[in-house]
Amino acid sequence: MKIKYLLIWGMTGLFLTGQAQVLPYKNSKLPITDRVDDLLGRMTVEEKVGQLSKLLGWEMYEKSGKTVRASQKLKDVVKQQHIGLLWATLRADPWTQKTLTNGLSSKEAAQATNAIQRFMLDSTRLGIPLLLSEEAPHGHMAIGATVFPTAIGQASTWNPTLIQSMASAIARETSAVGGKNGYGPVLDLARDPRWSRTEETYGEDPYLIGQMGKAMVTGFQGTKIGEADKIISTLKHFVAYAVPEGGHNGGSVSVGERALLQYFLPPFEQAVKAGAASVMTAYNSIDGVPCSANPWLLNDILRKQWGFQGFVVSDLLSISGLNGGHGTATDAVDAAQQSLNAGLDVDLSGSGYNQNLLEAVKTGRVDQQTLDRAVARVLYQKFALGLFDRPYVDEKAVDKKVGTKEHLDLARKVAREAVVLLKNDNQLLPLSKSLKRIAVIGPNADNMYNQLGDYTAPQPEEKVKTVLAGIRAAVSKNTQVDYVKGCAIRDTTASDIAVAVRAASEADVTVLVLGGSSARDFKTSYQATGAANVDSGASTLSDMESGEGFDRASLDLLGDQLKLLQALQATGKPLVLVTIMGRPLNLNWAAAHVPAIVNAWYPGQEGGLAIADVLFGDYNPAGRLPISIARYVGQLPVHYNHTKPKHHDYVESDAKPLYAFGYGLSYTSFTYSNLRVALAEQVDDFACTVRVDVKNTGNRDGEEVVQLYAIDEVSSVVTPVKQLKKFTRQAIKQGETKELSFVLTKEDLKLWGLDKQWKTEKGKFTLLLGGSSDDAKLTGEFVLAKDYAF
C-alpha cells in the first residue's frame, strides 16, 4: 500500500512539474497582452524582424500523390528569416502556375496548412505559428471554394445584410482550410473606370462603400476575433488608390486633404470602427508621400484618430517601391526604416524588411521600441485568433464547410440581387419560357471564366453555370436554344457574325451577351506584383481587358462586339443585351437601339442561373448602379456627387452620364408619397427623422431601393451637389404600401471646416428621396439653428 501511495505521489509531482514548465506565452488562461509581452521578451532581434515578413505561400508546400507536406523552401526560409506570415498559400491561378492538377483541393489545402503549422510548432525554437493570409474579396481564391459576384456586383445589391452573410460564408470556407486572414474588402473610391481594378470596388460613393465595408468586416470577423469559422479582415488599399492620373494602375493621385478626409477616408474609418484587424497600404503616393511611408496616414489618422489596434501590411513589394518607382529612399535599408517608422508593420514579400530592417535596427535608424510595437501587433492577432492554442484545422470537416449547397444558393442570391435592369422598352422582359426558339449569342454567353472576375482560382467546367446553361435550364423542353459565339471580346481573327445573324433570324428572340473579361490565362506574362503585363501589339489577343494591370484608354466595347450587336439588331428580331463586365463600358449605341438591357457585372459561378431567373421573370430585378455609366471617356470623372458648382454641358453632348448612380429598373412600379420631416435639436446633437410611404403600384411583387440624398445649401467650404446619406432595399408586395423611415444626425452631415475641425454647420439642408440619384420623387428640407461640434 505504501508503495502505491509513493507511486501516486511521484506521478502527481511529475504532473505538477510539467504544469510549472508551461511558458507564460503558451498559457491560454493568461491575458493576450501578457502572453505577447512574455513572448517578445524571449525573441531575438532576428526573430522579431522575421515575424514581420510575409512571404508568397504557394511555394511552401509539396504535393506528392495524396500526400501534402511542408516544402524544403519553407524550411529554408524559416531557418534563414524566421518568418511570421504567409500570403496566398492556397492560391491557384496562371500567375502562381497552380492548376486543377498541381494545385490543392480543399482537403489537400487543409493538409498543407496543417503540415506547415506542424513544422512551425515542432521544429522552431519558440514554436510560433504562421498567420496565413488569403485572397478572399469574392470568395476564397482557392480550388473548390465558392465564387461569388465581384465587389462591383455586390455593391449593386444595395443590401449590406446579404453581403454580411456572403462574407460569413467566405470566412467559413477560408478558415476551414487554414486561412485566418482574408484580403478584403476593397474600399477604394472608384471615380475613373479606365482604372483596371474598378471591378474590385464598391463604386463611387463613400457612404455606400462604407456600408458594404462594415458588412464584409462583420461577416469575416464576427463579434469577436477568434470565433469559430471566422477570419480577420484586411482593408484595401489605404488610400485613394482608385483615382490614379490617367487611370494608370498604381500611379500618383491628385487629391487634397479635405477630399481625402471627407470622401476617401470615411469608408476605411467605418470599417476600422467595425473592428477590422488589418489594413493594407496602397501603391500610390499622395501629395508626394508614398502611402507605404506616410506617418500622417498610418499613425495620426489610422491609429491616433480612429483608434486602430491591428497591424498594417504593405501591398506586394510596395516597400521596395520607395527606392524603386517612387524614388523617395536612397536604398533598401532606407526604404525599410521609412516604412516601419511611419507605422507599416508587415512586409508583403519578405524582401522589403528582412536584412534591410535588421540593418536599420542595428544601426539605430529604427529603435527597439518601434520594432517591438510592430511585432506585438502581429503577435496579438495570432493569439486572438487562437493560433497558439488551436493551430490545426479539422481535415474531415472540410467538405461540410467548403462549396456547400447553402453557399451555392447564397451565391445565386447575391448574383440575382446584383442584376441591374437598365432598359426594358415595351416590357420585352420577362421572356416567356415557352418560346419556340431562342438564340443565345456572344463571347460571354458560354465562357465560364469571363463571368468570374479577377482573383479567381481555376474551376472545373461543371461548377460554373454560364448564361447559356442558365437559359437552357430555365425554358421548357419544347424550346430550342441555339448558341453561336459570334466573336471574341478583343480578338477579331475568328469572328463569325454571319452565322450569328442566321441564328438570330431564325429565332423568336435573341439574348446577346457582351462586355469584358478579367480572365487570366497561362499565356499572359505577369509583373512581380501579380498585375498582368499588357501587350497591345500581340497578334493573338486574350479576352482580358479588365483586371489588375489592364487599364483602358477608352471604354468602348472591344473587338467586333459592336459590329455583332449592330448586325443582330438589323435582323428586326427582338433583342435582349446582357452585359457581363468589370467596369462601366460604352453602351450608347445599345441604349439608343436595343429594347432591353440587363447588366450583371461579373456574377460568379451561379451567375448564369441568376441571369436566367431575371430574364424569365422568376426574379424581379432590383439591383442599382453603384457607379455611373459614362457616355464618353471625355466626361470622366462623372460621379454624381461631384463638388459644386453644377456641371454645364459640353459642345458635343450634355454633361450627364448615360446611366446615373443608383439607377435601375423593375418589372413593377413604385410611387412615393406623404414625405414627413421632423427635426429635434438637442444640446450636442440632433435627430432629423424622415418618413415616406412607398407603394407598389405594378402588377407583381418587387423590391425598391429607396435612396435619401442631402444637399447642404450653404456651407463654409464647398460641398457636393448632392450626397447619399441613407438607403434601404425593401420587398413590397403588389398593391402594398410601406412606411419607411430614416434618421439623420450630425455625423451624417459633418464637414471638415476651414479651421480644420469636424462640424455640422447651421443652415438649410434639402432632402431628395427616390429610386436613383437623378430621379428625386419627393423633396423636403430642414434648417439647423446652430453649429454642432465633434
> Biggest β-sheet: count, sense, barrel?
8 strands, parallel
Architecture (CATH level 2) name of the largest domain = Alpha-Beta Barrel
Instruction: Find the CATH topology of the largest domain.
Output: TIM Barrel
Q: Averaging pLDDT over every residue, what do you get?
A: 95
Q: Sum up the overall morphology in one term.
A: globular
Residue share in β-strands:
15-25%
Strand order of the largest sheet: 11-8-7-6-5-4-1-12
Structural class by SSE content: alpha/beta
Supply the number of helical segments: 20
Q: End-to-end distance, in Å?
A: 76 Å
Q: What integer value in Å does the Rg equal?
A: 28 Å
Q: Any idea how many domains?
A: 3
CATH class placement of the largest domain? Alpha Beta
Helix content: 25-40%
Total DSSP E strands: 28
Stretches where pLDDT is under 50 for at least 5 consecutive residues are: 1-19
InterPro entries: Cellulose_Degrad_GH3, Fn3-like, GH, Glyco_hydro_3_AS, Glyco_hydro_3_C, Glyco_hydro_3_C_sf, Glyco_hydro_3_N, Glyco_hydro_3_N_sf
Pfam family, one: Glyco_hydro_3
GO molecular function: hydrolase activity
Domain Fibronectin type III-like: 704-773
Please describe the topology of this protein.
Layout: H1 2-20, H2 32-42, H3 45-51, E1 53-56, E2 61-64, E3 67-70, H4 72-81, E4 85-87, H5 106-123, E5 131-135, H6 151-156, H7 160-176, E6 181-186, H8 206-221, E7 232-238, H9 257-264, H10 266-273, E8 278-281, E9 285-286, E10 289-290, H11 295-305, E11 311-313, H12 332-342, E12 347-348, H13 354-362, H14 368-384, H15 405-418, E13 420-424, E14 437-441, H16 467-474, E15 480-484, H17 497-505, E16 509-515, H18 561-569, E17 575-580, H19 588-593, E18 596-599, H20 607-615, E19 670-681, E20 686-696, E21 702-712, E22 723-732, E23 737-744, E24 751-752, E25 758-760, E26 763-770, E27 776-784, E28 788-789
Parallel strand pairs: 1-4, 1-12, 4-5, 5-6, 6-7, 7-8, 8-11, 14-15, 14-16, 16-17, 17-18
Antiparallel strand pairs: 2-3, 9-10, 13-18, 19-20, 20-23, 21-22, 21-26, 24-25, 25-28, 26-27
Helix pairs in contact: 2-14, 3-13, 7-8, 7-15, 8-10, 12-13, 15-20, 16-20, 17-18
